Amino acid sequence: MFKNRFMPGRSAALALTLTGVMGAANLPAQAEEKPDPAANALLYAVAWKQTAAEYRALYHQGYNIARDRVDAALAAQKPGDKPLAVFTDMDDTVLLPLPYWSRLISGGHAFFDDPVWDEWVPQNDLVVAPGAKEFFEYCQEKGVEVFYVTSRDQGPNTYDYALGNLKALGLPYADPDHLTVLTDSSNKEPRQQELAAKYTPVVYLGDNLNDFQRKYYIKGDVPARIAAMEEDRAEFGRRFVLFPNPTDGHWMAAVFGESEPADTPEARAKLLEAAVTVLK
Ligand SMILES: [Mg+2]
Questions:
Q1: Per-domain residue ranges of the chain
Q2: For the domain with range 42-276, which CATH number is right: 3.40.50.1000, 3.30.70.360, 3.40.50.300, 3.40.50.620?
Q3: Which of 144, 162, 181, 197 could form a disulfide with 139 if both were Cys (CB 3.0 to 4.6 A apart)?
Q4: Which keywords describe this protein according to UniProt (predicted)?
Q5: What's the gap in Å between 210 CA and the centre of ligand 1?
Q6: d(CA 277, ligand 1 centre) in Å
Q7: Beta strands in 122-228 (DSSP E)
Q8: DSSP alpha helices (H): ranges in 77-221?
Protein backbone atom coordinates (compact mmCIF):
# COMPACT_ATOMS: atom_id res chain seq x y z
CA MET A 1 0.00 0.00 0.00
CA PHE A 2 1.29 3.41 -0.91
CA LYS A 3 -0.57 5.52 1.58
CA ASN A 4 1.35 8.68 0.78
CA ARG A 5 1.11 8.71 -2.98
CA PHE A 6 -0.22 11.88 -4.50
CA MET A 7 -3.95 11.51 -4.72
CA PRO A 8 -6.34 12.72 -7.43
CA GLY A 9 -7.72 16.02 -6.30
CA ARG A 10 -4.76 16.87 -4.09
CA SER A 11 -3.42 19.49 -6.48
CA ALA A 12 -6.73 21.29 -6.60
CA ALA A 13 -6.99 21.20 -2.80
CA LEU A 14 -3.45 22.54 -2.44
CA ALA A 15 -4.18 25.29 -4.95
CA LEU A 16 -7.19 26.32 -2.87
CA THR A 17 -5.05 26.29 0.26
CA LEU A 18 -2.38 28.38 -1.41
CA THR A 19 -5.01 30.82 -2.61
CA GLY A 20 -6.36 31.16 0.91
CA VAL A 21 -3.03 31.57 2.65
CA MET A 22 -1.05 33.51 0.10
CA GLY A 23 -3.85 35.55 -1.45
CA ALA A 24 -2.83 34.46 -4.94
CA ALA A 25 -5.78 34.83 -7.27
CA ASN A 26 -4.70 33.13 -10.46
CA LEU A 27 -2.96 29.85 -9.73
CA PRO A 28 -2.92 27.63 -12.83
CA ALA A 29 -5.36 24.77 -12.85
CA GLN A 30 -3.68 21.38 -12.43
CA ALA A 31 -5.83 18.67 -13.90
CA GLU A 32 -3.12 16.00 -14.14
CA GLU A 33 -3.44 13.10 -11.75
CA LYS A 34 0.14 11.96 -12.27
CA PRO A 35 2.44 13.46 -9.63
CA ASP A 36 4.94 15.96 -10.84
CA PRO A 37 8.30 14.93 -9.30
CA ALA A 38 9.50 18.53 -9.50
CA ALA A 39 6.60 19.63 -7.26
CA ASN A 40 7.51 17.15 -4.51
CA ALA A 41 7.39 18.81 -1.08
CA LEU A 42 10.58 16.97 -0.05
CA LEU A 43 12.85 18.12 -2.86
CA TYR A 44 14.78 20.91 -1.13
CA ALA A 45 15.38 18.88 2.01
CA VAL A 46 16.46 15.72 0.18
CA ALA A 47 18.54 17.54 -2.43
CA TRP A 48 20.38 19.22 0.43
CA LYS A 49 21.05 15.90 2.13
CA GLN A 50 22.27 14.35 -1.11
CA THR A 51 24.52 17.17 -2.30
CA ALA A 52 25.45 19.78 0.27
CA ALA A 53 29.03 19.70 1.51
CA GLU A 54 27.61 21.67 4.44
CA TYR A 55 25.45 18.69 5.41
CA ARG A 56 28.49 16.43 5.57
CA ALA A 57 30.62 19.08 7.29
CA LEU A 58 28.04 19.25 10.09
CA TYR A 59 28.73 15.57 10.83
CA HIS A 60 32.46 16.24 10.99
CA GLN A 61 31.73 19.19 13.24
CA GLY A 62 29.60 17.06 15.55
CA TYR A 63 32.06 14.19 15.72
CA ASN A 64 34.98 16.57 16.26
CA ILE A 65 33.12 18.06 19.22
CA ALA A 66 32.33 14.57 20.52
CA ARG A 67 36.00 13.63 20.31
CA ASP A 68 36.97 16.74 22.28
CA ARG A 69 34.43 15.76 24.92
CA VAL A 70 35.88 12.27 25.12
CA ASP A 71 39.40 13.63 25.45
CA ALA A 72 38.31 15.99 28.23
CA ALA A 73 36.49 13.19 30.07
CA LEU A 74 39.49 10.87 29.81
CA ALA A 75 41.77 13.58 31.16
CA ALA A 76 39.45 14.17 34.12
CA GLN A 77 38.92 10.50 34.97
CA LYS A 78 40.18 9.31 38.33
CA PRO A 79 40.87 5.78 39.58
CA GLY A 80 37.65 4.13 40.76
CA ASP A 81 35.39 6.26 38.54
CA LYS A 82 32.72 4.52 36.49
CA PRO A 83 33.84 3.71 32.94
CA LEU A 84 33.06 6.26 30.26
CA ALA A 85 30.49 5.69 27.54
CA VAL A 86 28.97 7.39 24.51
CA PHE A 87 25.22 7.02 23.92
CA THR A 88 24.19 7.32 20.30
CA ASP A 89 21.15 7.16 18.07
CA MET A 90 21.52 5.29 14.76
CA ASP A 91 19.55 6.69 11.81
CA ASP A 92 20.71 10.10 10.59
CA THR A 93 23.32 10.13 13.35
CA VAL A 94 25.59 7.20 12.49
CA LEU A 95 23.83 5.84 9.42
CA LEU A 96 22.52 8.08 6.65
CA PRO A 97 19.53 6.60 4.79
CA LEU A 98 20.33 8.56 1.61
CA PRO A 99 19.37 5.75 -0.84
CA TYR A 100 15.97 5.48 0.91
CA TRP A 101 15.22 9.15 0.25
CA SER A 102 16.26 8.78 -3.37
CA ARG A 103 13.92 5.81 -3.73
CA LEU A 104 11.11 7.67 -2.00
CA ILE A 105 11.34 10.69 -4.32
CA SER A 106 11.69 8.50 -7.41
CA GLY A 107 8.57 6.60 -6.34
CA GLY A 108 6.51 9.80 -6.21
CA HIS A 109 6.23 10.03 -2.42
CA ALA A 110 6.34 13.43 -0.79
CA PHE A 111 6.13 12.27 2.83
CA PHE A 112 7.94 9.55 4.80
CA ASP A 113 6.51 6.17 3.81
CA ASP A 114 6.69 3.21 6.21
CA PRO A 115 6.23 0.40 3.63
CA VAL A 116 9.08 1.78 1.51
CA TRP A 117 11.27 2.20 4.62
CA ASP A 118 10.51 -1.29 5.95
CA GLU A 119 11.37 -2.90 2.63
CA TRP A 120 14.55 -0.89 2.30
CA VAL A 121 16.06 -1.28 5.83
CA PRO A 122 17.10 -4.97 5.47
CA GLN A 123 18.99 -4.23 2.28
CA ASN A 124 21.97 -2.77 4.19
CA ASP A 125 22.22 0.12 1.77
CA LEU A 126 23.03 2.82 4.32
CA VAL A 127 25.82 5.38 4.10
CA VAL A 128 28.02 5.88 7.15
CA ALA A 129 27.87 9.44 8.48
CA PRO A 130 31.07 11.42 7.82
CA GLY A 131 33.39 11.12 10.81
CA ALA A 132 31.25 8.55 12.64
CA LYS A 133 33.33 5.44 12.10
CA GLU A 134 36.59 7.24 12.89
CA PHE A 135 35.10 8.62 16.10
CA PHE A 136 33.79 5.26 17.30
CA GLU A 137 37.11 3.61 16.47
CA TYR A 138 38.81 6.31 18.52
CA CYS A 139 36.46 5.57 21.43
CA GLN A 140 37.25 1.87 21.15
CA GLU A 141 40.99 2.57 21.11
CA LYS A 142 40.60 4.65 24.29
CA GLY A 143 38.38 2.10 26.06
CA VAL A 144 35.27 4.28 25.90
CA GLU A 145 32.25 2.10 25.13
CA VAL A 146 29.63 3.13 22.59
CA PHE A 147 25.97 2.20 23.09
CA TYR A 148 23.56 2.41 20.18
CA VAL A 149 19.93 3.03 21.18
CA THR A 150 17.43 3.17 18.34
CA SER A 151 13.67 3.13 17.85
CA ARG A 152 12.68 1.01 14.90
CA ASP A 153 9.98 -1.48 14.03
CA GLN A 154 10.22 -3.78 11.04
CA GLY A 155 8.48 -6.67 12.78
CA PRO A 156 10.15 -9.73 14.35
CA ASN A 157 13.45 -9.19 12.50
CA THR A 158 13.87 -5.58 13.62
CA TYR A 159 16.83 -6.28 15.91
CA ASP A 160 18.71 -8.40 13.36
CA TYR A 161 18.21 -5.77 10.68
CA ALA A 162 19.57 -3.02 12.93
CA LEU A 163 22.57 -5.10 13.99
CA GLY A 164 23.14 -6.05 10.35
CA ASN A 165 23.13 -2.38 9.33
CA LEU A 166 25.89 -1.60 11.86
CA LYS A 167 27.95 -4.66 10.96
CA ALA A 168 27.65 -4.02 7.21
CA LEU A 169 29.50 -0.74 7.71
CA GLY A 170 32.13 -2.27 10.00
CA LEU A 171 31.22 -0.05 12.94
CA PRO A 172 32.81 -0.78 16.34
CA TYR A 173 30.64 -2.18 19.14
CA ALA A 174 28.19 -3.74 16.67
CA ASP A 175 27.14 -6.47 19.10
CA PRO A 176 24.16 -7.34 21.31
CA ASP A 177 25.80 -5.85 24.43
CA HIS A 178 25.95 -2.44 22.80
CA LEU A 179 22.78 -2.27 20.70
CA THR A 180 19.32 -1.62 22.10
CA VAL A 181 16.37 -1.56 19.70
CA LEU A 182 13.11 -0.16 21.03
CA THR A 183 10.21 -1.41 18.95
CA ASP A 184 7.27 -0.23 21.05
CA SER A 185 8.35 3.24 22.10
CA SER A 186 10.57 6.11 21.04
CA ASN A 187 11.35 6.88 24.69
CA LYS A 188 15.08 6.20 25.10
CA GLU A 189 15.38 7.48 28.65
CA PRO A 190 14.75 4.20 30.55
CA ARG A 191 17.55 2.44 28.67
CA GLN A 192 19.87 5.43 28.97
CA GLN A 193 19.27 5.60 32.73
CA GLU A 194 19.94 1.88 33.03
CA LEU A 195 23.26 2.34 31.25
CA ALA A 196 24.10 5.47 33.23
CA ALA A 197 23.98 3.40 36.44
CA LYS A 198 27.09 1.56 35.24
CA TYR A 199 28.76 4.10 32.96
CA THR A 200 29.38 7.82 32.95
CA PRO A 201 27.85 9.19 29.74
CA VAL A 202 30.35 11.54 28.11
CA VAL A 203 28.17 12.66 25.26
CA TYR A 204 24.80 11.87 23.66
CA LEU A 205 24.61 11.84 19.85
CA GLY A 206 21.38 12.27 17.88
CA ASP A 207 19.50 14.00 15.07
CA ASN A 208 16.33 14.31 17.13
CA LEU A 209 16.05 16.10 20.47
CA ASN A 210 14.17 13.05 21.72
CA ASP A 211 17.47 11.16 21.40
CA PHE A 212 18.70 13.21 24.38
CA GLN A 213 15.69 13.60 26.68
CA ARG A 214 12.02 12.64 26.53
CA LYS A 215 10.94 16.11 27.62
CA TYR A 216 11.33 17.31 24.02
CA TYR A 217 8.69 14.87 22.77
CA ILE A 218 5.95 17.44 22.33
CA LYS A 219 3.26 16.87 19.73
CA GLY A 220 1.37 19.60 17.93
CA ASP A 221 3.03 22.55 19.67
CA VAL A 222 6.03 24.04 17.91
CA PRO A 223 6.65 26.97 20.34
CA ALA A 224 6.51 24.64 23.37
CA ARG A 225 9.09 22.34 21.82
CA ILE A 226 11.38 25.24 21.01
CA ALA A 227 10.96 26.54 24.58
CA ALA A 228 11.86 23.12 26.01
CA MET A 229 15.02 23.11 23.92
CA GLU A 230 15.95 26.66 24.99
CA GLU A 231 15.87 25.61 28.65
CA ASP A 232 18.87 23.40 27.87
CA ARG A 233 20.74 25.69 25.52
CA ALA A 234 23.99 25.23 27.44
CA GLU A 235 23.98 21.47 26.72
CA PHE A 236 24.29 21.65 22.94
CA GLY A 237 27.78 21.05 21.65
CA ARG A 238 28.62 19.85 25.17
CA ARG A 239 26.59 16.97 26.64
CA PHE A 240 24.34 16.81 23.57
CA VAL A 241 25.72 16.72 20.01
CA LEU A 242 22.99 17.24 17.44
CA PHE A 243 23.12 16.37 13.74
CA PRO A 244 20.92 17.90 11.01
CA ASN A 245 17.77 16.28 9.71
CA PRO A 246 15.30 18.33 7.68
CA THR A 247 13.34 15.34 6.31
CA ASP A 248 11.96 13.54 9.36
CA GLY A 249 11.91 13.32 13.14
CA HIS A 250 9.89 14.66 16.03
CA TRP A 251 10.10 18.23 14.78
CA MET A 252 7.42 16.97 12.40
CA ALA A 253 5.29 15.73 15.30
CA ALA A 254 5.32 19.28 16.64
CA VAL A 255 4.02 20.53 13.28
CA PHE A 256 1.63 17.75 12.24
CA GLY A 257 0.75 16.09 15.56
CA GLU A 258 2.49 12.91 14.39
CA SER A 259 5.98 12.10 13.11
CA GLU A 260 4.96 10.43 9.89
CA PRO A 261 1.81 12.06 8.57
CA ALA A 262 0.13 10.74 5.45
CA ASP A 263 0.18 12.93 2.36
CA THR A 264 -3.23 14.55 2.64
CA PRO A 265 -4.52 18.02 1.77
CA GLU A 266 -4.65 18.73 5.53
CA ALA A 267 -0.99 17.76 5.97
CA ARG A 268 -0.03 19.91 2.98
CA ALA A 269 -1.91 22.84 4.49
CA LYS A 270 -0.04 22.38 7.80
CA LEU A 271 3.27 22.23 5.96
CA LEU A 272 2.47 25.45 4.15
CA GLU A 273 1.39 27.11 7.38
CA ALA A 274 4.64 26.00 9.04
CA ALA A 275 6.64 27.49 6.19
CA VAL A 276 4.97 30.91 6.26
CA THR A 277 4.64 31.31 10.04
CA VAL A 278 7.55 33.25 11.51
CA LEU A 279 8.40 32.50 15.14
CA LYS A 280 10.40 35.20 16.90
MG1 LIG B 1 17.78 9.32 14.22
A1: 42-276
A2: 3.40.50.1000
A3: 144
A4: Lipoprotein, Signal
A5: 9
A6: 26
A7: 127-128, 145-151, 179-182, 200-206
A8: 98-106, 114-120, 132-141, 158-168, 189-196
Distance (Å) from CA 225 to ligand 1 centroid: 17
CA of 270 to the centre of ligand 1 (A): 23
Which residues have CB under 8 Å from 253's CB, separation 6+?
Answer: 217, 218, 219, 220, 259
Please give the single-letter amino acid code of residue 203: V
Q: What is the pLDDT of residues 133-164, one digit of tens each?
A: 999 999 999 999 999 999 999 999 999 999 99
pLDDT tens column, 75-102: 999 999 999 999 999 999 999 999 999 9
